[in-house]
Amino acid sequence: MSPKNIIDKIWNEHVVKHEKGVPDVLFIDLQLIHEVTTPQAFQTLRDKNLTIFDPTRTIATVDHSIPTDLKRENYKDKQTRKQVEMLRKNCRDFGLKLYDTGSGHQGVVHVTGPELGLTQPGQTIVCGDSHTATHGAFGAIAFGIGTTQILHVLATQCLLLEKPKTMRVNFIGKPSKYFTAKDAILLLIQQIGIQGGTGYAMEFCGDFIKNISMEGRMTICNMAIECGAKSGLISPDRKTIEYLRTKPASKKIMEDNPDIINEWLSLASTDKAVFDAVVDIHLDGQRPIVTWGTNPEQSITVNEKIPDPQVMADEAKALAAKKSLDYTQLKAGDPIIGTPIDYVFIGSCTNGRIEDFRAVANILKGKKIHNRITMLCVPGSEVVRAQCIAEGLDKIFMAAGVDFRASGCSMCLAMNGDIVPSGKRCASTSNRNFVGRQGVGSFTHLMSPLMAAICAIKGEITDPELYFNEIKNLF
After folding, report:
1. In what order do the strands lie in the sheet with 403-404?
2. Which residue, 147, 151, 187, 148, is CA-closest to 170?
3. Is the pLDDT of residue 1 over 70?
4. Distance between CA 117 and CA 256 in Å, rounded?
5. Which of 67, 126, 134, 141 has the fewest CB atoms within 10 Å, measured from its CB?
6. One domain for residues 216 and 318
7. Are residues 171 and 127 in the same domain?
8. For 61, what's the count of Cα atoms within 13 Å in the CB-facing half-sphere?
9. pTM
10. Residues 242, 310: one domain?
11. How many angstroms separate the CA atoms of 296 and 406, rounded?
12. Do the domain assignments include residue 284?
């Protein structure tokens, strides 16, 4: 028998029923819910007089629609307010744990799960949100589901699912100094395309993965969905264990059952593990990445020029590129460096963790943002916000002219009052740059927190290497 990879190991352990020719019945360890994708599921429970199979395995928070102003009152409209109020009622009625505003743990669902220690190796995790793959950073199979599937998990703790194919993604080589985890996942999407991972669960491997932080690993797994993958994960190692030692739920499990650590570590794929596909991404000397178009595949290295659709061999990609350039009002052949920026957004389930805010604060310390820039720093959770305050990062942000807000999804998807106006261009640390994603008629450039912070100071897209050389020459 071929050596199993981590995806096969976890999947096989969770199959309740397997029959040839039909989807598996898969047990789900943990369901995370929020206010947007759950109302119909709860209403169906009521209509059919169903109960929740195991209330301890479903955890709720408010994130998408909740306002991020400090008073939590600037709702976008009546519908978003109603969504939040309905989740509160549904959690009360069905006896579910809700991490609401003021609880100390409210936040973007994919930030709060790991920091509570609810996310653990070997689990199956679902949420009515496409970026659930974030939790794969801990060696879990995690993926987004729809409202009907949310209902199925609430009522049965199981789902009917086809087993995905498996793909190993090897990040090989050493990139340049200012290349981050965000750049790595954007580079993967650029190279294999937005459909390159369709039908697969991906495992990310290589020295680059081993050497980055757990926050960086979460960023990479978060955006696996953007190349079409069902989920993305990383085999647990000692770095995973040390992170989990500091989180409430996982710490308690480790104290109660010390053997669990070896169980978690044994999940890791071996070098000889068999995958359905293998992709190598070469990083040697690679510089930071920024998007120029209207999907995450449309990106370039920061010192490159905007591609010309007329010389693209792939007709479909050429047409998509032309449409994107028409929308973003950029010109083929121009450098991306120097593109003026109006808004900067630091946050989201991709880059809303304490490591991200420390990186931004290091850039902004003692400086002011450009007078054209509106900059929002929105922590991924109340825990992250409290950490920022404890470390004095909030003072750096406010002194620089940044709007340091309460936790939530915020400007990532503009359904909560935090919106990029039409015709304005945003340097964003979020995960999607679709047409209108951050506001009708707005333009989004995805990049790392490091590069976004530099944009805020310079007022335009800037090569970090050139920026730091410029600063060095001033002293």
Report:
1. 403-404, 374-377, 343-346, 425-428, 443-446
2. 187
3. no
4. 14
5. 67
6. no
7. yes
8. 26
9. 0.97
10. no
11. 27
12. no
Check residue 182 and give its pLDDT. 98
**Domain check: are 299 and 245 in the same one?**
no
Do residues 207 and 284 touch, judged by C-beta distance below 8 A? no
Helices (H) and strands (E) in the chain, counts: 18, 19
Q: What is the CATH number of the domain that holds 63?
A: 3.30.499.10
Torsion sign, CA atoms 310, 314, 319, 322: negative
- Residue 475 clears pLDDT 60, i.e. is over it: no
Q: 418 is written with which tokens?
A: 């935090």
pLDDT band (50, 70, 90) for residue 109 = very high
**How many domains is the chain built from?**
2
DSSP 129-174: SGGGGGGGGGS-EEEE--HHHHHHHHHHSEEEEPPPEEEEEEEES-
Q: What is the pLDDT of residue 385?
A: 98
Provide the residue count of the chain. Answer: 475
CB of 300 closer than 8 Å to CB of 289: yes
Q: How much is the average pLDDT of 84-92? A: 98
Domain containing 436 equals 291-474
Across the range 184-194, mean pLDDT stands at 98
From 257, 278, 299, give the residue that closes a domain: 278
